[in-house]
Write a structure and sequence with these properties.
With about 300 residues, the chain is an alpha/beta fold. The chain has helices at about 10-15, 20-30, 65-70, 105-125, 150-160, 170-180, 195-210, 220-225, 245-270, 285-300, and strands spanning about 45-50, 75-80, 85-90, 130-135, 140-145, 185-190, 210-220, 235, 240-245, 275-280. Strand 4 and strand 5 (about 140-145) form a beta hairpin. The longest helix is centred in the last third of the chain and has 25 residues, at about 245-270.
Length: about 300
C-alpha cells in the first residue's frame, strides 16, 4: 500500500530538515541533560505495531502466529522505553485563522506545518509525541506515543484542524499542567493573544511541574508591523466587535501595546528558562524551524 500524503508534510521542507534530525534530538535531549536515563534502553512490554520483515532484523522479534495466517514474515515492534515525551499544543482559536496579503499561510496553517514537521523529526528519533488542540476548550488530546499509526493519527488531526472559537490559552495550559502525570516537553504553537501575565503564570505552572517548555509564537507580518494607514474600522476576529479610530493614532497605540505585550512574555519566559521564538508567517516555515533548531543546538551543544 502506498504511503499516505499529508498537506502539512511538505516533502521538500522535510528533505531540507532531514540533516537536522540529530540537531532536533539534541535540542530535545538538551533540556534533560543529566536528569534522566538514556531514552533508548531496550523495549517496554507495550506492543506498538507490525512491520514486514527485512533481512538483518533480529529474528527473535518475528511473529510466527501472523506468519501462520498470512504466510508472510512480520516483525513485532514495541514502544521503546523512554522518559522523553513531547506534547505539541496548537492554538486553533479564531485569531489563528488570520492571513495577511504578504503571507501564503494563515497562522494556524503555519503552526500546523511546524507541528507536523516536529512530529516527524521526533518520531524518527523514537520519541513519544502527542498533540493537543485548543480554542475555547481543549478540542483534541492525543496521548504521547510512538509508532507509525499514531503519527498518522496526528497528521490526520492536523489536516482536519480549522479555526474555532475565542480562547483563553492560559486556562488550558493550567489544566494541562494539573492533569499530566509524567514529565514532558511542551511545545506551544500560538499567536499568544491572551493576557500576557496570565500566559507567563501558565508557563511557570508547566515548568513548576518539571515539564520543559518551548513557545513558538506565530504572527502574521501585518500584526507585527501594522501597515494599515487608510482604515477607520477594524474588526476583532474573536469578538466580532468593530473599533473605529483615527488610523495613525490607532497604529501608534497598537504598536506600543504589542511591544509591551511581547516584552512581558519574553521577560517571563527568560525568568522561567523557557525558550521563546517568534515566527512571522511570510518566512518559510522550514527556514524558521531549521534556524531555531540550529540555534538551540548551539545553546545546548
Amino acid at each position: 500500500m502506498a504511503n499516505p500524503t499529508y498537506r502539512y508534510l511538505d516533502p521538500v521542507a522535510l528533505g531540507q530538515l532531514k540533516n537536522l534530525a540529530l540537531a532536533a534530538r539534541r535540542v530535545v535531549e538538551g533540556f534533560y541533560a543529566g536528569q534522566h536515563r538514556s531514552p533508548a534502553k531496550g523495549y517496554s512490554i507495550e506492543f506498538a505495531e507490525h512491520r514486514e520483515y527485512t533481512p538483518g532484523v533480529d529474528p527473535r522479534h518475528l511473529d510466527w502466529r501472523v506468519y501462520g495466517r498470512r504466510d508472510k514474515l512480520y516483525v513485532k515492534q514495541y514502544e521503546e522505553e523512554t522518559s522523553l515525551r513531547c506534547y505539541l499544543i496548537v492554538d486553533k482559536s479564531a485569531s489563528m485563522g488570520y492571513r495577511g496579503s504578504a503571507a501564503r499561510l494563515s497562522k494556524l496553517e503555519y503552526a500546523s506545518f511546524l507541528a507536523a514537521t516536529l512530529s516527524v523529526l521526533m518520531a524518527q528519533q523514537h520519541d513519544a509525541v502527542g498533540l493537543v488542540t485548543v480554542d475555547d476548550r481543549i478540542r483534541t488530546r492525543l496521548p504521547a506515543r510512538q509508532g507509525t499509526a499514531h503519527l498518522q493519527t496526528i497528521m490526520k488531526t492536523l489536516e482536519a484542524n480549522s479555526p474555532g472559537e475565542s480562547t483563553s490559552l492560559s486556562k488550558h495550559l493550567h489544566e494541562l499542567a494539573e492533569t499530566l502525570q509524567k514529565r514532558a516537553l511542551m511545545v506551544i504553537l500560538s499567536d499568544l493573544f491572551d493576557d500576557p501575565k496570565e500566559l507567563v503564570a501558565a508557563f511557570q505552572h508547566l515548568r513548576h511541574n518539571r515539564n520543559e517548555v518551548i513557545v513558538l509564537q506565530t504572527l502574521d507580518p501585518d500584526e507585527v508591523h501594522f501597515p494599515f494607514d487608510d482604515i477607520t474600522r477594524i474588526e476583532d476576529m474573536e469578538t466580532g466587535r468593530d473599533v473605529v479610530s483615527d488610523p495613525q493614532a490607532f497604529r501608534k497605540a497598537y504598536l506600543e501595546a504589542l511591544q509591551t505585550h511581547l516584552q512581558t512574555i519574553q521577560a517571563g519566559c527568560t525568568r522561567a528558562q523557557i525558550d521563546l521564538a517568534l515566527a512571522q508567517t511570510d518566512e518559510p516555515f522550514e527556514r524558521f524551524l531549521g534556524n531555531f533548531l540550529v540555534k538551540r543546538q548551539s545553546y545546548h551543544g
